[in-house]
Structure formats: C-alpha cells, structure tokens
Amino acid sequence: MRDTDVKHSGPGISARDVYNISRSIWHDDFNRVAADTEVWTDNADGGGSFNIGTFATGPTAWDIKTGNVIDEDSSINGDATKNRRFTPYELEFNTVTWETILALISVVDISAMWGLLSTVPVSYAEPTSPCAHFIADPAITNTFRARSYAAAEEETDTLVALDTSPHTFKIVWTSTSVLFYIDDVLVATHAAQVPNIPLVTTYLIRTEAAAEKIMRVCCLHVELS
C-alpha cells in the first residue's frame, strides 16, 4: 500500500478522492525457490518444472519450463487460497494496471500467453471467455500480439518483433477499454471487446517441438486507480 496524505472528506467526495488516487494491490518479485502456494497454483505436463533463474544482467526471476515432448504445457495462475482476481468495477476505483517483466528464452517452436484471464487454462488455447492478455505464437506472426475477449475476440498485431530480451508488458483495463503497452509504448487499444468480470493472472508456455522451452518471469505489479 502506498503512503497517502490524509485529507478531509465532504459532500460529493469519494474515498478514492480522500486518499491517494491509486494504490498498489499486489507485487511479486518471483525470488522464492518455489511459488507462494497461497497465491499461485501451477500446472506442468510431463517434464515441466518451475525454478529460480537469473537474467544475465538483471534480477532473480522464476523459470516456467516445459518438458521436451511436443505440445507439453507449463503454467502458473494466481488463483490459489489468497485469490488475486482484479476488476475495475468495484472499490470506487475504475482502472486496473497490470505490469510484468519477462523474457522468452526461445521464440522458436513455442506458443505462450500471459495476462489476465477469467478461466484458468491447463493447456495453450486462445480463451473464449473474458480476458486481456499478450500472445507469442510464431505460427501466427513473429511478433507479440495483444488480445481481449468479452462476447467475441479482438486481437491486434503489436508489430513488436518476438525476441529473447526481457520486456515490460503492461495492460491498462477500464470499463470502456483495454490498452496494451510493451516497454511503455502503446501497442494496441481495444474498445470493442472489454472484459466485464474479475480476471486472474496467468503465465503459460507450450513447446511446439521436442525441446524444453522457458518463460522467465522477473516481477509482477498490479495497481488500482
């Protein structure tokens, strides 16, 4: 929670106005040996695993690994006992800002998605329930893609090339739009398909070859404003 300056309320002034207009509601540095099981559930086929990794010039991270059998998936989801579902429709706040830093250790023969979903996946497939997330799927394009779903799909090619460098991915979700950013650059604006129910964090990677694939996640920060 951020420090706030106490102000006096009055007629027509909401709690959101009295206190700071934004507040941090979740932060994870992914620096534990294993996931916090009160927050995260995990799912891995076959030889999939989760363990500490380190960016070459950066902080400790968490490796989400597949096995080395084609179509094996590995994922973590923020839906455990201390459930972390987010929505811009309550608590007198109207914006969810979801931000993560991650790298794909290979961008060949993979399918991956990360962001906010309403239904926790067990394998890679573009959700047909409310969501807002990024996609890396070189079978479609060799670029990162932004996708949202409410009653139907809205998907945008961000034109940012897939690579193995760490990037900051941000989703800004309100009741009227979903904005997608990569490294603080706006890459997609969705207004036709905006989720309207609480969503949960998911990171998922699939290998499309007989080789291990890794998603390396450094941190996650979520804020209401």
TrEMBL record:
One of its GO terms (biological process) is carbohydrate metabolic process. It holds the Pfam family Glyco_hydro_16. GO terms for molecular function: hydrolase activity, hydrolyzing O-glycosyl compounds. Residues 141-192 form the GH16 domain. This is GH16 domain-containing protein. InterPro entries: Beta-glucanase-like, ConA-like_dom_sf.
